[in-house]
Structures are given as structure tokens and as C-alpha cells.
């Protein structure tokens, strides 16, 4: 992880951003694959693994549960000695730091154990609700308690294994609650039927979970749009390759859209299991050209400028809301982003705090309960806060490609999911990064 540095001054881009790039492996897929491999029978070998704070935290959490991992982070390789669904540790204290996937997935995994487990994280993690997941675990015979007000971590789990067969989980705060239950389900004695209650958010991430589970030999039947049936049987070890991160790719696609450039991302295509690849559809609606290539490992190309604002429901691709919001600063006419109320519970309030920083740059922003309306206006130099949120830092920095005098505070927070972001952005945008702090 990068050491903390106070600020980074973005140099303007000398021209349109043009080039080809392959982002690092997907964080979301990496953490799902680590869990499946840990619970599997036999030894799995994962390649293309993302080296970041979130993935190292997940690996550390699994090790705290007694699971052996051999990691070669620089080469993106992890070998996992699976435990066939039986957790070796009868007690563990797991530091989830700021990793929501670790907190949610391992809370469900700990329910498979026979013992006492405690999961905690950063001060912000103690403000992120988790009781919808814990309520589902309690319905399965697990003593699961959130110790902070509002049903937030730390989480205390006391379990003798999952004894129930049917769980009802609310899906309006995070899809990770259902994904966590699903990941644990093949190792429950009688499997699990999961019913999704209420409004569902970030649906592509649920499908991602099913596909990663299937790669490790677990069945997950979608009975209907609100019910999954997962039989017992556990997982089988796999040699599994992780595709590049589509959320990370969005910043480079956006760089092309903001500058009228031409960027190709390799390793990702329309067939990606990551829903955030649909960010390119939003850019196409704004006036960019998008070309999909399914040959070889696949690639996606974005050309031209995002010339017009749009009205868009981003519930399914909500991690890219900050990215699209910055693109909207340079379009003609307002952009309205809807149906993303759940992103207020992310690493920061990605509606309220994002609106504040966009206004700091000079934009006119109307904040709504479930989204934003962004009206372009003359932009001005500013120092923007990032709230220890990697996506705020990576997206807001893109405004500096065209706005001189942009300063990013706490740029090292990108280490949560993309430690090499600043070097990659400097390379593809031909930025003069000679004055940047060493950590960037």
C-alpha cells in the first residue's frame, strides 16, 4: 500500500488522451475467488490477482481463520490451500480495514465455523450498516451481533455452523449481503435457499458471484428473479484467471471522453462478467464512439468527446457514478444520475460529498436523495477532498486533464483498489509527473 502523501497537483493534459492499457485484476472477482478457493477441496492457483489494500485485507482475514495462502503479489499469483468448508480456527479477530467485501463476505463465512469470531474495521466501516446480513444469519441459527449504533460493525459471530436452510436478506443497501450468504451456502450442511427482499441494488454483482461460484464447481440456481437455490456439496479447487477491473477501466474510458481522445482497454469486452463495463454505454449515449472486440482476450475502445448530458439510472453500475459525474462537467447540458441512494453508505457519501467537491470546481449541482443533477459551468482551480475514498480520488483527478490548478488531497487513498493508478494515468495521458510525490 502507498504511504500517505498530503496532495498531488494535476498537470493539464497536453492533448487528447490516446493509448492502450490493461488495468489490474478485478477487486470484486479477486475477493470472491479467494473465498471460493479458501472453502474448496484441494489447492487452487489464482492468476491476475489484484494487489491492493482490499485484496490483502481479504487474504489476511482468511489467514486469521486458519487458511494457508502463498502469495506472490507483484506477479498477481496466489495459491490457496482449501479447507473443504471447515474453518480451522475456533476463534479469530479479523481486521477488515475499509474493505466492505471482506466485512460482508467473511461475516457469512464465519457462520460456517464452530467458535467465536470478531470483525472490525476503520471508523468509516463502523458507520456502514450490516445488520440486514446479520438478521439473515440469525435466521439460520447463528448468533450474529453488530456492536455499533445503527446495526454497524464491529461484528461478533458465535456459531456452531449454519443450521437453517432458508434465508431472507434485504437487498436495498448492498448486494454484498446476498453475495456473502451465497458464497458460504455450498458449505452449509443442507445448502441454502436465499430470498431477496425489497429493492435490489447492483444486480450485476450478484451474477458475478454466481459465475465465480460456478468456476469452483458450486451450483447456484436462480429459481426466479428473487430466489436462489444453492445445494450442499462445497467447492472444488480451480486454476482461475481473474480479468481486469472494469471499474478501474472506467477512469481511462472517461479520460478519452473528457479530452476527445482514443483509449483501448484490453482484457475486457462486452462479455465481461463485470457490470461496470456498461459504463461505456453511458459514454456512447453522451456522444462517444464505442467499439467492442471479442477476439483473443477481448478489448473495448472509446473514441471522441462526451458532448451532451444524459438522464441515466446508474443503479447497476453505481461504482462508476463519480466517474460519470466528472465527465458530465464537460458535456453540453445537464446530466441527471438516478436510483443510487445506496452509494451514500460507501467509503464516503458518494452523493453528498461528491456534490460538494463538484461545486468546489464550479459546477452547478442539485443533490437529490437518490442521485445528482450536474449542470456544467465555467470550472476553476481547486483543492478537492477525497474523504479517504479511492473512487473519489481517481474520478475527481480526471477533471485536472482539462482544468489547470487542480489539487487532489490524500492521493494515496487509491491504494485501496488501484495502487498504480497515478503512474498509469500519467503514462496514458502523457502527463508531466516529475513533481509528483514519490508515493504517486
What does this structure look like?
- The protein is α/β, with parallel strands linked by helices and 440 residues long.
- The protein folds into two domains: 7-24 and 245-428, UDP-n-acetylglucosamine1-carboxyvinyl-transferase, Chain, CATH 3.65.10; 27-230 and 237-241, UDP-n-acetylglucosamine1-carboxyvinyl-transferase, Chain (Alpha-beta prism).
- Helices cover 27% and strands 26% of the residues.
- The chain has twelve helices and 25 strands.
- The chain has helices at residues 27-39, 53-64, 100-110, 131-138, 176-184, 203-215, 246-259, 279-285, 321-328, 352-361, 390-396, 421-428; strands spanning 7-10, 18-21, 40-41, 43-47, 68-72, 77-81, 91-95, 114-120, 143-148, 152-160, 166-170, 192-197, 221-224, 227-230, 235-236, 239-241, 262-266, 289-293, 299-303, 311-313, 335-338, 364-368, 371-375, 382-384, 406-409.
- The chain has a four-stranded mixed sheet, with helices on one face. A four-stranded mixed sheet has the order 5-6-4-16, with helices on one face. A four-stranded mixed sheet has the order 7-8-10-9, with helices on one face.
- The longest helix is centred in the middle third of the chain and has 14 residues, at 246-259.
- The radius of gyration is 21 Å and the shape is globular.
Amino acid at each position: 500500500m502507498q504511504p500517505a502523501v498530503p496532495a498531488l497537483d494535476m498537470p493539464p493534459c497536453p492533448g487528447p488522451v490516446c493509448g492502450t492499457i490493461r488495468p489490474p485484476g478485478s477487486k470484486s472477482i479477486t475477493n470472491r475467488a479467494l473465498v471460493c478457493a479458501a472453502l474448496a477441496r484441494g489447492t487452487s492457483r489464482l492468476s491476475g490477482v489484484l494487489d491492493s489494500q482490499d485484496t490483502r485485507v481479504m487474504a489476511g482475514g482468511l489467514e486469521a481463520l486458519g487458511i494457508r495462502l502463498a502469495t506472490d503479489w507483484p506477479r498477481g499469483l496466489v495459491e490457496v490451500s482449501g479447507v473443504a468448508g471447515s474453518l480451522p480456527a475456533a476463534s479469530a479477530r479479523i481486521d477488515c480495514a475499509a474493505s466492505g467485501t471482506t466485512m460482508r463476505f467473511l461475516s457469512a463465512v464465519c457462520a460456517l465455523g464452530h467458535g467465536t469470531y470478531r470483525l472490525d474495521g476503520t471508523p468509516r466501516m463502523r458507520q456502514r450498516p450490516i445488520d440486514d446480513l446479520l438478521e439473515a444469519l440469525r435466521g439460520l441459527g447463528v448468533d450474529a451481533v453488530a456492536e455499533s449504533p445503527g446495526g454497524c460493525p464491529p461484528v461478533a459471530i458465535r456459531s456452531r455452523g449454519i443450521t437453517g436452510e432458508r434465508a431472507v436478506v434485504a437487498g436495498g443497501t448492498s448486494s454484498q449481503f446476498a453475495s456473502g450468504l451465497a458464497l458460504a451456502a455450498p458449505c452449509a450442511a443442507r445448502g441454502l435457499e436465499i430470498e431477496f427482499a425489497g429493492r435490489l441494488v447492483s444486480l450485476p454483482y450478484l451474477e458475478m458471484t454466481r459465475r465465480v461460484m460456478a468456476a469452483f464447481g458450486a451450483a447456484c440456481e436462480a429459481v426466479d428473479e428473487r430466489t436462489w437455490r444453492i445445494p450442499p456439496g462445497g467447492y472444488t479447487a480451480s486454476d482461475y484467471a481473474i480479468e481486469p477491473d472494469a471499474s478501474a477501466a472506467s477512469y481511462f474510458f472517461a479520460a478519452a471522453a473528457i479530452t476527445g481522445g482514443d483509449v483501448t482497454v484490453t482484457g475486457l469486452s462486452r462479455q465481461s462478467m463485470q457490470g461496470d463495463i456498461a459504463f461505456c454505454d453511458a459514454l456512447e449515449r453522451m456522444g462517444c464512439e464505442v467499439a467492442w472486440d471479442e477476439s483473443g482476450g477481448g478489448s473495448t475502445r472509446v473514441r471522441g468527446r462526451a458532448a451532451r448530458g444524459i438522464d441515466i439510472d446508474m443503479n447497476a453500475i453505481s461504482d462508476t457514478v463519480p466517474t460519470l459525474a466528472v465527465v458530465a462537467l464537460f458535456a453540453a447540458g445537464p446530466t441527471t444520475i438516478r436510483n443510487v441512494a445506496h452509494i451514500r453508505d460507501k467509503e464516503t457519501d458518494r452523493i453528498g460529498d461528491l456534490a460538494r467537491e463538484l461545486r468546489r470546481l464550479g459546477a452547478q449541482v442539485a443533490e437529490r436523495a437518490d442521485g445528482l443533477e450536474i449542470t456544467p459551468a465555467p470550472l476553476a482551480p481547486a483543492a478537492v477532498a477525497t474523504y479517504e475514498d479511492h473512487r473519489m480520488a481517481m474520478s475527481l483527478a480526471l477533471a485536472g486533464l482539462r482544468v489547470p490548478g487542480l489539487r487532489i488531497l490524500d492521493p494515496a487513498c487509491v491504494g485501496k483498489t488501484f495502487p498504480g493508478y497515478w503512474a498509469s494515468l500519467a503514462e496514458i495521458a502523457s502527463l508531466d509527473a516529475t513533481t509528483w510525490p514519490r508515493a504517486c
